[in-house]
Amino acid sequence: MIPLEPRETSIAPPPVLADYSNQYRQFFPITEKFVYLNHASVSPLSQPTRDRMTSLLGEMTVDLPRIFEKLERMIASVRLLAARLVNGEPEQIAFLRNTSEALSVIANGYPWKAGDNIVSTGAEFPANLYPWVRLESAYGVEIRYQRDPNGWVNVDELLSLVDERTRIVTVSWVEFATGQRVDIRRIGKFCRERGILFVIDAVQGLGALQLDVQRDFVDAFAAGAQKFLLGPKGVGLLYLSNRALERVRPTTIGWTAVTNYEDYLPHDLNFRKGAIRFEGGTLNVLGIAGLGEALELFLRAGPAQIEKYLLSLNSYLAELLIERGYHVVCPRNEEEASAILVCQSDRFSGEEICTRLGSQNIITSARLNRLRIAPHFYNTREDMDALIAALPV
Protein backbone atom coordinates (compact mmCIF):
# COMPACT_ATOMS: atom_id res chain seq x y z
CA MET A 1 0.00 0.00 0.00
CA ILE A 2 1.07 3.60 -0.60
CA PRO A 3 2.08 5.07 2.77
CA LEU A 4 0.23 7.99 4.29
CA GLU A 5 3.40 9.66 5.52
CA PRO A 6 4.16 13.23 4.39
CA ARG A 7 5.85 13.18 1.02
CA GLU A 8 9.35 14.28 0.11
CA THR A 9 9.13 17.99 -0.64
CA SER A 10 11.88 18.15 -3.26
CA ILE A 11 10.36 18.06 -6.73
CA ALA A 12 12.19 16.88 -9.83
CA PRO A 13 12.91 19.54 -12.48
CA PRO A 14 10.10 19.91 -15.03
CA PRO A 15 10.44 18.29 -18.44
CA VAL A 16 10.64 20.17 -21.71
CA LEU A 17 7.30 20.69 -23.43
CA ALA A 18 7.73 17.90 -25.95
CA ASP A 19 8.08 15.36 -23.16
CA TYR A 20 4.67 15.94 -21.60
CA SER A 21 2.73 13.35 -23.58
CA ASN A 22 5.42 10.73 -22.97
CA GLN A 23 5.80 11.37 -19.23
CA TYR A 24 2.26 12.12 -18.09
CA ARG A 25 -0.26 10.76 -20.59
CA GLN A 26 0.38 7.24 -19.29
CA PHE A 27 -1.06 8.30 -15.92
CA PHE A 28 -4.51 9.00 -17.42
CA PRO A 29 -6.31 5.79 -18.46
CA ILE A 30 -9.20 7.81 -19.87
CA THR A 31 -7.02 8.45 -22.93
CA GLU A 32 -7.44 4.80 -23.92
CA LYS A 33 -11.10 5.42 -24.78
CA PHE A 34 -11.72 9.16 -25.01
CA VAL A 35 -10.21 12.37 -26.27
CA TYR A 36 -11.10 14.19 -23.09
CA LEU A 37 -11.23 17.98 -23.49
CA ASN A 38 -13.69 18.96 -20.78
CA HIS A 39 -11.50 19.85 -17.80
CA ALA A 40 -13.43 23.09 -17.29
CA SER A 41 -16.38 20.91 -16.19
CA VAL A 42 -15.08 17.80 -14.39
CA SER A 43 -11.71 16.15 -14.85
CA PRO A 44 -10.85 12.45 -14.90
CA LEU A 45 -8.67 11.14 -12.10
CA SER A 46 -5.13 10.05 -12.82
CA GLN A 47 -4.05 6.51 -12.04
CA PRO A 48 -1.80 7.70 -9.16
CA THR A 49 -4.70 9.67 -7.66
CA ARG A 50 -7.02 6.68 -7.87
CA ASP A 51 -4.34 4.42 -6.37
CA ARG A 52 -3.75 6.86 -3.54
CA MET A 53 -7.43 6.99 -2.65
CA THR A 54 -7.85 3.23 -3.02
CA SER A 55 -4.88 2.63 -0.76
CA LEU A 56 -6.34 4.88 1.90
CA LEU A 57 -9.70 3.11 1.63
CA GLY A 58 -7.89 -0.17 2.25
CA GLU A 59 -6.16 1.15 5.35
CA MET A 60 -9.41 2.60 6.67
CA THR A 61 -11.04 -0.79 6.15
CA VAL A 62 -8.50 -3.06 7.85
CA ASP A 63 -6.21 -0.86 9.95
CA LEU A 64 -8.25 2.17 11.01
CA PRO A 65 -7.17 2.35 14.70
CA ARG A 66 -3.54 2.66 13.67
CA ILE A 67 -3.76 5.40 11.05
CA PHE A 68 -5.28 8.42 12.82
CA GLU A 69 -1.93 10.12 13.34
CA LYS A 70 -0.92 9.26 9.78
CA LEU A 71 -4.10 10.92 8.53
CA GLU A 72 -3.27 14.11 10.42
CA ARG A 73 0.21 14.13 8.92
CA MET A 74 -1.22 13.50 5.46
CA ILE A 75 -3.61 16.45 5.79
CA ALA A 76 -0.76 18.69 6.93
CA SER A 77 1.35 17.52 4.00
CA VAL A 78 -1.37 18.30 1.44
CA ARG A 79 -1.93 21.70 3.05
CA LEU A 80 1.76 22.40 2.51
CA LEU A 81 1.58 21.29 -1.13
CA ALA A 82 -1.42 23.56 -1.79
CA ALA A 83 0.41 26.49 -0.24
CA ARG A 84 3.46 25.78 -2.38
CA LEU A 85 1.40 25.77 -5.54
CA VAL A 86 0.18 29.34 -4.95
CA ASN A 87 3.11 30.80 -2.97
CA GLY A 88 1.09 31.03 0.22
CA GLU A 89 1.52 29.72 3.76
CA PRO A 90 0.03 26.42 4.98
CA GLU A 91 -1.91 28.17 7.75
CA GLN A 92 -3.67 30.26 5.07
CA ILE A 93 -5.21 27.15 3.45
CA ALA A 94 -8.46 25.47 4.47
CA PHE A 95 -10.08 22.36 3.00
CA LEU A 96 -13.77 22.77 2.21
CA ARG A 97 -16.24 20.91 0.01
CA ASN A 98 -16.26 23.09 -3.10
CA THR A 99 -15.96 26.57 -4.60
CA SER A 100 -19.45 27.67 -3.56
CA GLU A 101 -18.92 26.77 0.08
CA ALA A 102 -15.54 28.49 0.20
CA LEU A 103 -16.92 31.72 -1.30
CA SER A 104 -19.87 31.57 1.09
CA VAL A 105 -17.44 31.45 4.03
CA ILE A 106 -16.12 34.85 2.96
CA ALA A 107 -19.47 36.36 2.05
CA ASN A 108 -21.12 35.29 5.30
CA GLY A 109 -18.16 36.05 7.55
CA TYR A 110 -17.39 39.63 6.55
CA PRO A 111 -18.66 42.31 9.01
CA TRP A 112 -21.09 44.02 6.65
CA LYS A 113 -22.91 47.28 7.28
CA ALA A 114 -25.90 48.59 5.38
CA GLY A 115 -24.70 50.70 2.45
CA ASP A 116 -21.50 48.70 1.85
CA ASN A 117 -21.02 47.46 -1.69
CA ILE A 118 -19.37 44.64 -3.60
CA VAL A 119 -18.03 45.09 -7.13
CA SER A 120 -18.14 42.16 -9.55
CA THR A 121 -18.97 41.35 -13.17
CA GLY A 122 -22.05 40.23 -15.03
CA ALA A 123 -20.12 37.28 -16.46
CA GLU A 124 -19.75 35.27 -13.26
CA PHE A 125 -20.68 31.63 -12.83
CA PRO A 126 -23.41 31.26 -10.17
CA ALA A 127 -20.90 29.96 -7.60
CA ASN A 128 -19.40 33.46 -7.49
CA LEU A 129 -22.75 35.19 -7.64
CA TYR A 130 -25.34 33.73 -5.28
CA PRO A 131 -23.26 33.97 -2.07
CA TRP A 132 -22.98 37.73 -2.64
CA VAL A 133 -26.53 38.32 -3.88
CA ARG A 134 -27.91 36.98 -0.59
CA LEU A 135 -26.25 39.87 1.20
CA GLU A 136 -28.51 42.42 -0.50
CA SER A 137 -31.59 41.37 1.44
CA ALA A 138 -29.73 40.11 4.52
CA TYR A 139 -27.58 43.19 5.22
CA GLY A 140 -28.50 45.89 2.71
CA VAL A 141 -25.28 45.40 0.75
CA GLU A 142 -25.26 46.68 -2.83
CA ILE A 143 -23.88 44.49 -5.62
CA ARG A 144 -22.39 46.47 -8.52
CA TYR A 145 -21.83 44.66 -11.80
CA GLN A 146 -19.62 45.49 -14.74
CA ARG A 147 -21.80 44.14 -17.54
CA ASP A 148 -21.06 43.34 -21.16
CA PRO A 149 -23.57 41.74 -23.56
CA ASN A 150 -20.93 39.26 -24.75
CA GLY A 151 -19.65 38.34 -21.31
CA TRP A 152 -16.29 40.12 -21.44
CA VAL A 153 -14.64 41.64 -18.39
CA ASN A 154 -13.42 45.20 -18.86
CA VAL A 155 -11.08 45.98 -15.98
CA ASP A 156 -11.29 49.76 -16.47
CA GLU A 157 -15.08 49.66 -16.25
CA LEU A 158 -14.96 47.24 -13.32
CA LEU A 159 -12.66 49.46 -11.28
CA SER A 160 -14.68 52.58 -12.11
CA LEU A 161 -17.49 51.09 -9.97
CA VAL A 162 -15.36 51.15 -6.82
CA ASP A 163 -15.98 53.89 -4.25
CA GLU A 164 -15.36 54.55 -0.56
CA ARG A 165 -18.06 52.03 0.47
CA THR A 166 -16.61 49.15 -1.58
CA ARG A 167 -15.50 46.38 0.77
CA ILE A 168 -14.84 43.49 -1.65
CA VAL A 169 -14.07 43.16 -5.34
CA THR A 170 -14.65 39.64 -6.65
CA VAL A 171 -14.13 38.13 -10.10
CA SER A 172 -13.39 34.79 -11.68
CA TRP A 173 -9.72 34.47 -12.58
CA VAL A 174 -10.82 32.74 -15.81
CA GLU A 175 -14.38 33.28 -17.02
CA PHE A 176 -16.25 30.03 -17.56
CA ALA A 177 -18.11 30.98 -20.77
CA THR A 178 -15.44 32.91 -22.68
CA GLY A 179 -12.13 31.55 -21.40
CA GLN A 180 -10.96 35.11 -20.74
CA ARG A 181 -8.16 35.32 -18.18
CA VAL A 182 -8.79 38.44 -16.12
CA ASP A 183 -5.91 40.72 -15.12
CA ILE A 184 -6.11 39.85 -11.44
CA ARG A 185 -2.73 41.43 -10.65
CA ARG A 186 -3.94 44.83 -11.74
CA ILE A 187 -7.24 44.49 -9.87
CA GLY A 188 -5.49 43.13 -6.77
CA LYS A 189 -2.97 45.97 -6.66
CA PHE A 190 -5.78 48.51 -7.04
CA CYS A 191 -7.67 46.92 -4.15
CA ARG A 192 -4.61 46.58 -1.92
CA GLU A 193 -3.85 50.30 -2.26
CA ARG A 194 -7.38 51.11 -1.07
CA GLY A 195 -7.75 48.56 1.71
CA ILE A 196 -10.37 46.54 -0.21
CA LEU A 197 -10.38 42.75 -0.08
CA PHE A 198 -9.82 41.09 -3.45
CA VAL A 199 -11.52 37.69 -3.79
CA ILE A 200 -11.26 35.39 -6.81
CA ASP A 201 -13.02 32.28 -7.98
CA ALA A 202 -9.91 30.38 -9.14
CA VAL A 203 -11.53 27.11 -10.17
CA GLN A 204 -11.15 27.62 -13.94
CA GLY A 205 -7.47 28.49 -13.69
CA LEU A 206 -5.81 26.72 -10.79
CA GLY A 207 -3.92 23.69 -12.06
CA ALA A 208 -3.64 25.08 -15.59
CA LEU A 209 -2.22 28.56 -14.99
CA GLN A 210 0.26 29.95 -12.48
CA LEU A 211 -1.21 31.69 -9.46
CA ASP A 212 1.02 33.59 -7.04
CA VAL A 213 -1.10 35.10 -4.29
CA GLN A 214 1.70 37.46 -3.27
CA ARG A 215 2.54 38.71 -6.75
CA ASP A 216 -1.13 38.97 -7.74
CA PHE A 217 -2.32 40.70 -4.53
CA VAL A 218 -4.98 38.04 -3.93
CA ASP A 219 -6.63 38.23 -0.51
CA ALA A 220 -8.78 35.14 -0.92
CA PHE A 221 -9.54 32.46 -3.45
CA ALA A 222 -11.83 29.46 -3.73
CA ALA A 223 -11.29 26.46 -5.98
CA GLY A 224 -12.93 23.05 -6.09
CA ALA A 225 -10.57 20.19 -6.91
CA GLN A 226 -12.63 18.57 -9.66
CA LYS A 227 -11.67 20.77 -12.63
CA PHE A 228 -8.15 21.73 -13.70
CA LEU A 229 -6.76 20.59 -10.34
CA LEU A 230 -7.48 17.01 -11.51
CA GLY A 231 -8.77 16.01 -8.08
CA PRO A 232 -11.95 14.33 -6.86
CA LYS A 233 -15.32 15.95 -6.30
CA GLY A 234 -16.29 16.96 -2.79
CA VAL A 235 -13.10 18.74 -1.74
CA GLY A 236 -11.75 22.20 -2.48
CA LEU A 237 -9.38 24.89 -1.33
CA LEU A 238 -10.01 28.15 0.48
CA TYR A 239 -7.10 30.58 0.73
CA LEU A 240 -7.25 33.58 3.05
CA SER A 241 -4.45 36.12 3.31
CA ASN A 242 -3.53 37.50 6.72
CA ARG A 243 -5.51 40.64 5.84
CA ALA A 244 -8.56 38.55 5.08
CA LEU A 245 -8.13 36.44 8.21
CA GLU A 246 -8.28 39.62 10.29
CA ARG A 247 -11.66 40.57 8.82
CA VAL A 248 -13.56 37.38 8.03
CA ARG A 249 -15.05 35.47 10.96
CA PRO A 250 -16.36 31.88 11.06
CA THR A 251 -20.13 31.55 10.86
CA THR A 252 -20.35 27.76 10.55
CA ILE A 253 -18.41 26.41 13.52
CA GLY A 254 -16.95 22.91 13.43
CA TRP A 255 -15.73 21.15 16.53
CA THR A 256 -12.09 21.42 15.39
CA ALA A 257 -12.32 25.21 14.93
CA VAL A 258 -11.13 26.01 18.47
CA THR A 259 -7.67 25.87 20.01
CA ASN A 260 -8.32 23.09 22.54
CA TYR A 261 -10.69 21.02 20.42
CA GLU A 262 -9.40 17.72 21.82
CA ASP A 263 -10.36 18.70 25.39
CA TYR A 264 -14.07 18.38 24.49
CA LEU A 265 -15.72 19.79 27.61
CA PRO A 266 -14.42 23.33 28.27
CA HIS A 267 -16.53 24.67 25.38
CA ASP A 268 -14.40 27.82 25.00
CA LEU A 269 -14.91 29.47 21.63
CA ASN A 270 -11.29 30.48 21.12
CA PHE A 271 -10.64 30.03 17.42
CA ARG A 272 -7.49 28.40 16.10
CA LYS A 273 -5.07 30.58 14.20
CA GLY A 274 -5.23 30.67 10.43
CA ALA A 275 -7.75 29.39 7.90
CA ILE A 276 -8.20 26.03 9.61
CA ARG A 277 -10.87 27.62 11.83
CA PHE A 278 -13.15 27.63 8.78
CA GLU A 279 -13.04 23.86 8.29
CA GLY A 280 -16.33 22.40 9.41
CA GLY A 281 -15.10 19.62 11.65
CA THR A 282 -14.42 16.15 10.24
CA LEU A 283 -12.75 16.44 6.84
CA ASN A 284 -13.06 14.50 3.58
CA VAL A 285 -9.77 12.64 4.04
CA LEU A 286 -10.22 10.59 0.87
CA GLY A 287 -10.71 13.72 -1.19
CA ILE A 288 -7.76 15.45 0.45
CA ALA A 289 -5.53 12.44 -0.22
CA GLY A 290 -6.56 12.45 -3.88
CA LEU A 291 -6.02 16.19 -4.15
CA GLY A 292 -2.58 15.76 -2.60
CA GLU A 293 -1.57 13.27 -5.28
CA ALA A 294 -2.73 15.68 -7.99
CA LEU A 295 -0.82 18.55 -6.41
CA GLU A 296 2.36 16.48 -6.35
CA LEU A 297 1.89 15.77 -10.04
CA PHE A 298 1.57 19.49 -10.81
CA LEU A 299 4.65 20.39 -8.83
CA ARG A 300 6.66 17.65 -10.53
CA ALA A 301 5.51 18.76 -13.97
CA GLY A 302 6.14 22.42 -13.18
CA PRO A 303 3.29 24.99 -13.11
CA ALA A 304 5.16 27.35 -15.45
CA GLN A 305 5.70 24.57 -17.98
CA ILE A 306 2.08 23.44 -17.75
CA GLU A 307 0.81 26.95 -18.48
CA LYS A 308 3.22 27.42 -21.37
CA TYR A 309 2.27 24.07 -22.85
CA LEU A 310 -1.48 24.66 -22.60
CA LEU A 311 -1.30 28.12 -24.15
CA SER A 312 0.76 26.67 -26.99
CA LEU A 313 -1.66 23.77 -27.45
CA ASN A 314 -4.68 26.07 -27.61
CA SER A 315 -2.89 28.40 -30.03
CA TYR A 316 -2.31 25.41 -32.31
CA LEU A 317 -5.96 24.40 -32.01
CA ALA A 318 -7.21 27.93 -32.67
CA GLU A 319 -5.41 28.07 -36.01
CA LEU A 320 -6.92 24.74 -37.03
CA LEU A 321 -10.40 25.89 -36.04
CA ILE A 322 -10.11 29.03 -38.12
CA GLU A 323 -8.97 26.98 -41.11
CA ARG A 324 -12.02 24.77 -40.57
CA GLY A 325 -14.31 27.81 -40.79
CA TYR A 326 -15.04 28.23 -37.07
CA HIS A 327 -14.97 31.52 -35.18
CA VAL A 328 -12.62 31.55 -32.21
CA VAL A 329 -14.26 33.89 -29.70
CA CYS A 330 -11.92 33.52 -26.73
CA PRO A 331 -8.93 35.86 -26.31
CA ARG A 332 -5.84 34.99 -28.33
CA ASN A 333 -3.37 37.39 -26.68
CA GLU A 334 -1.10 35.85 -24.04
CA GLU A 335 -2.31 38.10 -21.22
CA GLU A 336 -5.96 37.03 -21.52
CA ALA A 337 -5.65 33.54 -22.99
CA SER A 338 -6.27 30.55 -20.73
CA ALA A 339 -6.63 26.77 -20.93
CA ILE A 340 -10.21 27.24 -22.13
CA LEU A 341 -10.85 27.74 -25.83
CA VAL A 342 -14.31 28.86 -26.97
CA CYS A 343 -15.51 28.81 -30.58
CA GLN A 344 -18.72 28.82 -32.59
CA SER A 345 -20.06 27.84 -35.98
CA ASP A 346 -22.33 29.69 -38.37
CA ARG A 347 -24.26 26.47 -39.06
CA PHE A 348 -24.38 24.46 -35.85
CA SER A 349 -25.16 25.30 -32.24
CA GLY A 350 -22.67 24.60 -29.50
CA GLU A 351 -24.93 21.83 -28.19
CA GLU A 352 -25.15 20.16 -31.61
CA ILE A 353 -21.38 20.20 -32.05
CA CYS A 354 -20.79 18.91 -28.52
CA THR A 355 -23.23 16.03 -29.08
CA ARG A 356 -21.67 15.06 -32.41
CA LEU A 357 -18.19 15.07 -30.93
CA GLY A 358 -19.38 13.03 -27.96
CA SER A 359 -20.74 10.36 -30.29
CA GLN A 360 -17.13 9.91 -31.45
CA ASN A 361 -15.75 9.82 -27.88
CA ILE A 362 -14.42 13.38 -28.06
CA ILE A 363 -15.61 15.07 -24.89
CA THR A 364 -16.22 18.82 -24.79
CA SER A 365 -18.99 21.05 -23.42
CA ALA A 366 -21.35 23.78 -24.64
CA ARG A 367 -21.78 27.11 -22.90
CA LEU A 368 -23.97 29.99 -24.09
CA ASN A 369 -24.47 28.25 -27.45
CA ARG A 370 -20.73 28.04 -28.03
CA LEU A 371 -18.38 25.06 -28.00
CA ARG A 372 -16.01 25.07 -25.03
CA ILE A 373 -12.79 23.07 -25.33
CA ALA A 374 -10.61 22.64 -22.26
CA PRO A 375 -7.53 20.40 -22.62
CA HIS A 376 -4.94 19.65 -19.97
CA PHE A 377 -1.24 18.96 -20.00
CA TYR A 378 -1.56 15.27 -20.86
CA ASN A 379 -3.47 16.10 -24.06
CA THR A 380 -1.51 16.18 -27.31
CA ARG A 381 -1.60 17.84 -30.70
CA GLU A 382 -2.90 14.53 -32.01
CA ASP A 383 -5.92 15.02 -29.73
CA MET A 384 -6.47 18.43 -31.31
CA ASP A 385 -6.17 16.93 -34.78
CA ALA A 386 -8.80 14.31 -33.88
CA LEU A 387 -11.16 17.03 -32.69
CA ILE A 388 -10.73 19.01 -35.89
CA ALA A 389 -11.31 15.94 -38.06
CA ALA A 390 -14.58 15.21 -36.21
CA LEU A 391 -16.04 18.72 -36.35
CA PRO A 392 -19.11 19.25 -38.54
CA VAL A 393 -18.68 21.87 -41.24
Explain what you see.
This protein has 393 residues and is α/β, with parallel strands linked by helices. The chain folds into two domains: 71-299, 3-Layer(aba) Sandwich (Aspartate Aminotransferase, domain 2); 303-390, Aspartate Aminotransferase, domain 1. The protein is 36% helix and 13% strand. The chain has twelve helices and 13 strands. It has helices at 20-24, 47-62, 68-86, 99-109, 130-139, 155-160, 184-194, 242-247, 285-301, 303-323, 350-358, 381-390; strands at residues 35-36, 93-96, 117-121, 142-146, 166-172, 197-201, 220-224, 236-240, 327-328, 341-344, 362-363, 365-367, 370-373. The strands form three sheets. The protein has a seven-stranded mixed sheet with strand order 2-8-7-6-5-3-4, sandwiched between helices. The protein is globular.
Topology of helices and strands:
Blueprint lengths: L19 H5 L10 E2 L10 H16 L5 H19 L6 E4 L2 H11 L7 E5 L8 H10 L2 E5 L8 H6 L5 E7 L11 H11 L2 E5 L18 E5 L11 E5 L1 H6 L37 H17 L1 H21 L3 E2 L12 E4 L5 H9 L3 E2 L1 E3 L2 E4 L7 H10 L3
Parallel strand pairs: 1-11, 3-4, 3-5, 5-6, 6-7
Antiparallel strand pairs: 2-8, 7-8, 9-10, 10-13, 12-13
Which terms summarize this structure?
four-stranded antiparallel sheet, 393 residues, Aspartate Aminotransferase, domain 1, seven-stranded mixed sheet, 12 helices, alpha/beta, 13 strands
Kindly report the name of the CATH homologous superfamily of the largest domain.
Answer: Type I PLP-dependent aspartate aminotransferase-like (Major domain)
N-to-C span: 50 Å
Q: How helical, in percent, are the residues?
A: 25-40%
Summarize the main sheet.
Answer: 7 strands, mixed
CATH topology assignment of the largest domain: Aspartate Aminotransferase, domain 2
Q: What ranges have pLDDT less than 50 throughout 5 or more consecutive residues?
A: 1-14
Order of helices and strands: HEHHEHEHEHEHEEEHHHEEHEEEH
Estimate what percentage of residues fall within beta strands: 5-15%
Number of domains: 2
The Rg value, from CA coordinates, equals 21 Å
Question: So, CATH architecture of the largest domain?
Answer: 3-Layer(aba) Sandwich
Q: Major sheet: order of its strands? A: 2-8-7-6-5-3-4
- CATH class categorisation of the largest domain: Alpha Beta
Structural class: alpha/beta
